[in-house]
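During the first year of the project, the team set up a workflow for recording each protein of interest as an amino acid sequence followed immediately by a discrete structure-token representation. This format lets reviewers and collaborators read both layers of information side by side without switching files. As required by the reporting guidelines, we include two representative entries from the current panel. The first entry is reproduced here exactly as it appears in our internal archive.
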Amino acid sequence: GLEQIGGGLKTKIKKISGQLTTIKAMVEVAIDFPDEEAEILNADDLRRQIEPALKGLEDLISAAEHGKIIKDGISAVIIGRPNVGKSSLLNALLREERAIVTSVPGTTRDTVEEYLDILGLPVHIVDTAGIREARGEVEEIGIQRSMAKLTTADLVIMLLDAGSPPHADDERLFAKAAGKPLIIVINKSDIKRPEIIREHYARFPDTAIVTISAKTGDSLPQLEGLIYKTITGDDYSAESRQTIPNLRHQAAMTKALKAGRSFLRGLNNELAPDLMAIDLQTALDYLGEIVGYTTTEDILDKIFGDFCLGK
């Protein structure tokens, strides 16, 4: 399994393996020297030692769940009133002119769909028809499609015009997006001052707000970082990408965690050391599937190194 595993993940699992090996060494000593068992196996000490290992596994398993998002991608929808710059934003994110950009409101009559890569996160992004009271049947259909896309999206990007005061249509849209991961993007910062509108939406503490210019590309990297963080829960870093386990690793870690928790239960119930050693070995075996196995020799080295026994 070593060849397909990121350096960051390998380091983390080796560290957890090391923590478990130390505990196993102590349990082995207690088995060999039953008279010293009470002294060697201090339950509080062992608990303190195993907790970081279990927490480390829990974190890596949740990283694997994020990894699924990163592999499979997400769907995002750009919503807003006509002419706030939705198509310009889509083009800026795509870094090319694909959606129709004109200054006539109501031009994107339908939904325009694109795939883009945002910091390695595959995003299926939909630019919707501007939401306003429809002027004509074609626009009405576009608006209905926009609303349908909004309900199925993983992420909603609501675009507002920096120069316009908050509008009833915006408030309606904001209400429709309730309960979804939402980023408010205030556009046209190159020509207008966004403070009023920023203050208006700042009263919703869970909503991320960013001010950009789709035209000049100003603050687009901040928006991309925000999209990544809103979806994965993490700030983007190249290193974080290295620590994403694949499905096989995730399964092995889940089994190792189960065995580690079983050891903890045994400890709390004052189980015999030889039975507790089995749980630890099971956990080490599962981690060994990912980073190579810890042998009995490693454990003996650890015992003699830490306890100066048999010298």
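The second entry, processed by the same pipeline in the following quarter, appears below.
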Amino acid sequence: MTTFTGTYFDGRTSAGRHVSVSFNGSTVSVRNDEDGFYVEVPQEQVDITAPLGRTTRVITFADGARLETDDHAAVSTLEQMVRKNRYAQMLDALERRWPLVLASLAGIVAAVLVTIHVVIPVMADKASRLVPATILDGASKQTLTMLDARFFGPTTLDRETTASLEKIFNELLADVGGASFSYRLELRNSPIIGPNAFALPSGTIVVTDQLVALATDDRALAGVLAHELAHVEQRHGLRSLFQNAGVFLLISLLVGDVTSVTSMAATMPTLLIESGYSRDFEEEADLFAGEYMTQKGWGTRPFRDILQSMAKEVGDSDVPSFFLTHPGTDDRLAHLRNLDDP
């Protein structure tokens, strides 16, 4: 049996009466032995206000009476017995146990960080390898159509230059083996974008006329194409898409907003445009291109030169991050230069 003392107010007058209170499992009994006051209240007619720090606890009854007490432990026990305010009890316990609260918050933050930096990338990698080629082709075609409508025009390169680029591209495919994707080289003119190249998940690699004009020789273009081919082979585009979607989904779940998640699949082309490559993906593609060039006996100098030229030409612009996915040029050049060192 739970017993404690408090002050009883009958709800009709402002006078309070010092009473003892007991609970036998089904009924709350309130009494004052000095004046013979006694009342029994079934637990169904008992309500207990939620705890707020160490303020006085209030128990109310169906007839309008109320009971005030500072015996927090007893009221907490009573709450458990009459099954009241369980959520509030938990919050009150946390308020009085700050080390536990801080440890819990630290655990949540750690779990979120591990999910974002470890779990989601691993799952994104696995998911990217399960996407059928038909979906890759469809999404890539839609993406290119959207880009053509906004940024690109037909190439202005002459037939000789176009044929030379096709030859470089085909030699690259023959050297590294690109049978796992339907590779295709697309040339576009884009004064808005400037010198750039990018790869779509299906294997379509787009090169702008402005990039071709910037190249000093065929080896530089081969390096750029090898870099973009690595993005396709390693599924960097899809992995970036899935990682961004995974983080978005995680945040939506944390804040309780999952309604926008259902429309994500329908916006895949747009997400492909807006999803950039991470620094790790860029370094992985650079390594692939650099090793290809060193194996050919060219060294990485032509590739480094065109990267520097691109960095000077592109600068800031109002274009999607899809075209601005080459961060940290100085670091990238240093890594490529290391491949040339004996």
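For the second entry, the following points were noted during internal review. Residues 2-88 form a domain with the PH-domain like fold (CATH 2.30.29.30). Confidence is low (pLDDT under 50) at residues 265-270, 316-322. Both points are flagged for discussion at the upcoming steering committee meeting.
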